Amino acid sequence: MGTLHRFFCPTCAHAVEVSGGDDAGMVCLTTTVVCEECRQLYDVTIAENTGSANAKRIPIHCPKSGMHKVKRWRSPRPCPKCGTSMKKGEPTVLWD
Predict the structure, then answer these.
(1) E strand or H helix at 8, and its extent?
(2) What is the pLDDT of residues 59-73, one digit of tens each?
(3) Gap between the Cα atoms of 67 and 40, Å rounded
(4) Which of 6, 28, 55, 77 is the most exposed place for a label (fewest CB within 10 A)?
(5) For residues 15 and 9, what is the distance between their CA atoms, to the nearest angstrom?
(6) What residues contact 3, with CB distance under 8 A and at least 6 apart?
(7) Residues 29 and 21 sit within 8 Å (Cβ to Cβ)
């Protein structure tokens, strides 16, 4: 079961609900990415969770455009808007 958390920036008040790194549900594996073009955090699917080592991997990408440059983001990392460390809040959603 995956978990989303509310991450917020104390400096610019940017807030988002993401896993904050690698996460897994019954159907898929996800990771949190930062898009350098959108300056936003997203959770993206990286593989089908088949329970086997041969799970089909999916390249990380920006959900807005496959042309945008993204990189993995793990808590605690800088805010994509202003660069201040984001704070991790309480869990907000359990997903499967």
Answers:
(1) strand 2-8
(2) 999 999 999 999 999
(3) 15
(4) 55
(5) 6
(6) 19, 23, 91, 93, 94, 95
(7) no
56 SS3 class? coil
Identify whether the C-beta of residue 56 lies closer than 8 Å to the C-beta of residue 80: no
Name the CA dihedral angle for 3, 27, 43, 62, rounded to a multiple of 10 degrees.
Answer: 180
Place of tokens 């594996």: 29
User: What are 3-62's pLDDT values in tens digits?
Assistant: 999 999 999 999 999 999 999 988 889 999 999 999 999 999 999 866 666 677 889 999
| Look-up of token digits 């605690």 | 76
List CB contacts of 15: < 8 A, sequence separation 6 or more: 6, 7, 8, 9
